[in-house]
Amino acid sequence: MAFAEEETTAYYLGMNLVEDHCDTADGGLTAGWSPSGSCTLSAHAEDPAPDVLPPPPPLLTATPDSDEEEGVPRARKPSGRYVLAAHRKDEKDGVCRAISRLPRPWVTYRVSGWVGVGAAGAAEEERSSSSHAVHIEVRVDGHRPVGGGVAVVEPGKWGEIKGSFRVDDDEPPRSAMVHVHGPAAGVDLKVMDLQVCAVNKIPRLRHLRKKADRVRKRDVILKVSGGRAEDGGVSSVAGAHIQVIQVQNSFPIGSCITKAGINNPEYVDFFTRHFDWAVLENELKWYYTEAVQGQVSYADADELINFCDQHGKPVRGHCIFWAVENSVQPWVRALNTEQLRAAVEARLRGLVSRYSGRFPHYEVNNEMLHGSYYRSRLGDDIDAHMFRETAAIDSAPALFVNDYNVESANDPNATPEKYVALITDLQRRGAPVGGIGIQGHVTHPVGDVICDALDKLAVTGLPVWVTELDVSAADEAVRADDLEIVLREAFAHPAVEGVMLWGFMQGHMWRSHAQLVNADGKVTEAGSRLVGLRREWTSHARGKVDSNGNFKFRGFHGTYQVLLTTGDGEVRKRAFDVKKGDAPLVLDMDF
């Protein structure tokens, strides 16, 4: 699983593509920067340098002999020197500068540094009293956006830039610019220590392998005995051949499925062999089960759930409601307040009681960071009410929030901090929130950015699932690399308990250039990468029982079968589970 493209561009790694200039009267601070729109630029310095923790990660580099911190971003002291854009007349006004060393196609780049906001004077004090979204946008060839990031910044504080971009094109760009803008008109904008560097993924992957070993594996000692000998049966099994086979990993990886998909034999074959869980892409959503008022049908959902039961795949409940207005069917939007409240209650009772005890998870009201349809119509408590009533009808499933862009640092509406605030408010209202879903519709992912978001969500103490993962890239090798980045970050993080892909086969997916299996049934590089990772995350061991009757190995958490072959060739079987724990797991195995 090598990242060959990154290795062939080693000379770019660690190089800041934004050149520093030090030949101007202000020490080079404004050289290279230009106003974008209507504003004036000036150079400033804070002495001592501002305290901005955590610092933005530079390019992930490490020496070959570095220890387990290899691949972890190093702290970098801020310079305190920044450029200020003042007298801004529009939120699009800001600063820009050329990326002097042009980015290469299909290489992921990090944009890092700090941004700040502040009023130009007392007249603007009120409008700058709240936080502002600062957008960092990279454009190539004059106009085409290729990525960037967003930092939500409070006045008087510095916010970390966590942008990323990639030119997904075989032709190299002729020009590239970084644009920084976003706060309301009249709010000053500050930019400090901007860097654009290619991402070296190799050290990060080495770090994640070590981290996964700590988080997902455990030492196991099997104390093997057999018969009723005076020595406890040890002598009868000492030297016997033993084989340990993991039959299930406790970290599930699943996918959404569709009615059309399960009628395709190649679709069914890949799903049943390589995925543990399922979720219905659309067939359980309200607009699907009741497109016309009063005409409720769960026939397609039942067909898919029965298919999963036949193949032993647990099903997540997605979703009871959807908070985004354009995902609410027209007849629901046409209801008056009391009619809407009655319809919500009928949907809750009808769906949740019908499938009581069937689903281990429910996503209760999808995408509340991006929509507030029911809250705007029925009051601030309605979201929490949905959670409370769902739990009252069916207490078995964990009840999830679920949203997109939280892991990508590119959406001011979906920062990890805002997600935690939403969860805290639901809990304050008595909502039994049981899990956090981050959807994972990602483009040019960067591992440490994802990890930072997961760290911030982990403070809630709730389990996190990646619920709708897909990565889109026309280049198959790049798509496979992107998929591996997200899967390894999730697998190595202790707060994450599972991953669901949002489809896997071309023609049966919401997103283009994201397939693991082509329409003709051929497995893509990304599909092979998934299969390889699943193989890597499965533990097998074989050897002989030692003279003390012990067999030791280190394995991933999950369910195992052990086969003991006696001296006369008899094969005896036992099963056991390896669960999380710091101390070695000692199991008595009587054969």
From TrEMBL:
Active site positions: 468
Residue stretches making up the GH10 domain: 238-533
Region (Disordered): 40-79
Xref: Gene3D superfamilies: Galactose-binding domain-like, Glycosidases
PANTHER family given in the database record: GLYCOSYL HYDROLASE, OS01G0134800 PROTEIN
UniProt similarity note: Belongs to the glycosyl hydrolase 10 (cellulase F) family.
Name of the molecule in the record: GH10 domain-containing protein
Species for this entry: Urochloa decumbens
